[in-house]
């Protein structure tokens, strides 16, 4: 039996990873109805990480916690045995900003800390924290406060939320957070190597993406520098320059410096959580993807991680995407035998967003024709005779079905 594994990330702003997988599977089954096609949604540590873990068998545990601007949001962590998977994006991320309005100076990571606290209180002793997509630049101060840290101003009062408050810190007390995290292992999914401060730091590089103007970037960077001074005095070592300290507005710094976290590439962590190595064994083809295939894809994004992992088992990998800017040579070097983009069959971007599932189904059919063994008892014409998309734009050549270059 022909076996296919679909391990795709989401198409951001359009389709979830599960929807991508279901659409491609439907297209494959149009042409190869007897193929065994498994869908394993994945993510790279940002939004969709908890969903990927839940689809792989983790239990979704609902939690109410403050969003980046303080409003209560309903989120979840994923649990299996004593492992908890926490997604910062879903509680303290840009997607949780009310009305989509930026709050560069006041957005907090407190909610992510409360979700971690809930998981620990429920008995979890290993926490995987995905930190992509944060809304704030508070150096992880909010997260630490949710876990018990006390950050006091010169009057002995607790500071407020957000990066703008970091400059007011006079005294910090980490005793409670250390006690709470005793015996707990924290692993952070982090795909950047930025330091905490300076021209490559959290404020300078990512602050503008979170709505900060030039003066606000300078103020946030100064606050982060002061925060780093305070932490260095408390723990006896300065980690502001460590790779990944600037991730998620400085949450990477707080996690490493105070929680003793280990930073790892997000897709590698997720592939372990979903047991990818076991799932890919004996598979004839892997299909992966994301909304945009470009140079960034090759540096720690989900499709590149899938291609590398499948390549170890010598399983061919094809990619689906909304748009592809990579050359055939770059794709081959990254481990892809081919890539299929919605934009190739539908130049109208609005329709690509609106009709993404239908278009992906058509690409799934094309993948089945071009990359899976032909089943003589299932002629192509019969397999797709009921297709309103007229996928029979293919011809039979030397016993192998190939497309004529256009799918209508």
According to CATH, what is the class of the largest domain? Answer: Alpha Beta
For the largest beta-sheet, the strand count, sense and barrel status come to: 6 strands, mixed
Query: In the CATH classification, which architecture of the largest domain applies?
Result: Alpha-Beta Complex
Could you say what the CATH topology of the largest domain is called? Glycerate kinase, domain 2
Mean pLDDT: 92
CATH superfamily of the largest domain: Glycerate kinase, domain 2
Count of runs of 4 or more consecutive helical residues: 17
Report helical residue fraction.
Answer: 25-40%
* Shape label: elongated
Indicate the low-confidence ranges by residue numbers: 382-408
- With strands numbered from the N-terminus, the spatial order across the biggest sheet is 3-4-5-6-9-10
Radius of gyration: 23 Å
Amino- and carboxy-terminal Cα gap: 29 Å
Classify the beta-strand content into a percent band: 15-25%
Which class of secondary structure composition applies to the elements? alpha/beta
Number of domains: 2
Number of strands: 15
């Amino acid at each position: 039996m022909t076996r296919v594994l679909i391990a795709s990330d989401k198409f951001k702003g359009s389709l979830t990873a599960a929807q991508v997988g279901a659409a491609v599977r439907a297209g494959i089954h149009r042409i190869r109805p007897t193929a065994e096609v498994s869908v394993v949604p994945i993510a790279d540590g940002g939004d969709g990480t908890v969903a990927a873990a839940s689809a792989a068998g983790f239990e979704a545990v609902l939690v109410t916690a403050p969003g980046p601007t303080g409003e209560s949001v309903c989120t979840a962590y994923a649990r299996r045995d004593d492992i908890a998977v926490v997604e910062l994006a879903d509680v303290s991320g840009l997607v949780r900003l009310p009305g989509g309005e930026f709050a560069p100076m006041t957005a907090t990571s407190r909610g992510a800390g409360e979700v971690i606290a809930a998981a620990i209180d429920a008995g979890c002793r290993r926490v995987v924290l995905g930190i992509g997509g944060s809304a704030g630049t508070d150096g992880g101060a909010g997260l630490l406060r949710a876990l018990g840290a006390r950050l006091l101003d010169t009057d002995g009062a607790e500071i407020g939320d957000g990066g703008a408050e970091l400059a007011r810190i006079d005294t910090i007390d980490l005793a409670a957070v250390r006690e709470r995290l005793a015996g707990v292992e924290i692993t952070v999914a982090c795909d950047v190597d930025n330091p905490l401060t300076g021209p490559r730091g959290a404020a300078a590089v990512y602050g503008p993406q979170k709505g900060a103007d030039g003066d606000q970037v300078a103020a946030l960077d100064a606050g982060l520098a002061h925060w780093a001074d305070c932490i260095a005095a408390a723990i006896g070592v300065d980690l502001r320059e460590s790779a990944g300290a600037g991730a998620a507005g400085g949450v990477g710094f707080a996690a490493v410096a105070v929680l003793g976290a280990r930073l790892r590439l997000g897709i590698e962590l997720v592939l372990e959580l979903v047991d990818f190595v076991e799932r890919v064994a004996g598979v004839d083809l892997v299909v992966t993807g994301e909304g945009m295939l470009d140079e960034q894809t090759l540096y720690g994004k989900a499709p590149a991680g899938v291609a590398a992992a499948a390549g170890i088992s010598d399983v061919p990998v094809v990619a689906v995407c909304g748009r592809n800017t990579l050359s055939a040579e770059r794709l081959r070097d990254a481990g892809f035998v081919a890539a299929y983009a919605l934009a190739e069959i539908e130049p109208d971007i609005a329709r690509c967003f609106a009709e993404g599932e239908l278009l992906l189904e058509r690409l799934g059919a094309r993948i089945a024709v071009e990359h899976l063994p032909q089943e003589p008892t299932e002629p192509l014409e019969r397999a797709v005779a009921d297709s309103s998309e007229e996928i029979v734009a293919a011809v039979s050549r030397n016993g192998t079905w190939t497309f004529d270059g256009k799918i209508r």
